[in-house]
Design a protein that fits this description.
The protein contains three helices and nine strands. It is α+β, with helices and mostly antiparallel strands. The strands form two sheets. Strands 5, 6, 7, 8 and 9 form a five-stranded mixed β-sheet that branches. A four-stranded mixed β-sheet has the order 1-4-3-2, covered by helices on one side.
Length: about 150
Amino acid sequence: MNLVECRVQLVESRELRYNATVKVYESYTMVMKSMSVKFVRIAPRFMVNDLELALSFYKGLGFEVKRHDESLAFVKGGSFDFHVHYDPEAAPSHHVWWIEVKGVDALYQRCQESPSAKVCSTVKSQPWGFREFNIRDPFNNLLIFAERQD
């Protein structure tokens, strides 16, 4: 084998490796496209040790409550929802929810009248462009209600 034949063989070898690499990449891409994932929505699920109290509380704030069974309920407010799951051994939780609303002053008044809402702040204008107040639910979750300032 002379020098020219060696170069031809090397080029052919590189082309074969390149072609094999391209085919593997194309196969990988096809598989990944067929396995593409699209996240549709998020619905947090919160554990509570008193489902009736939780449903009464959120219904009192104006949320729509739909019971699924003895241990699960769906709570809907406008364009979002979350799930409340009963577990008799659930420890107090410490979640923070930021919820954008329209009518923050009316909601604040409703929370002040609720015996189970622990109002933690008054409605205040914030430098980030919202009027907000916060409460704690009966399970110690912090709910921040905010209305966009125009």
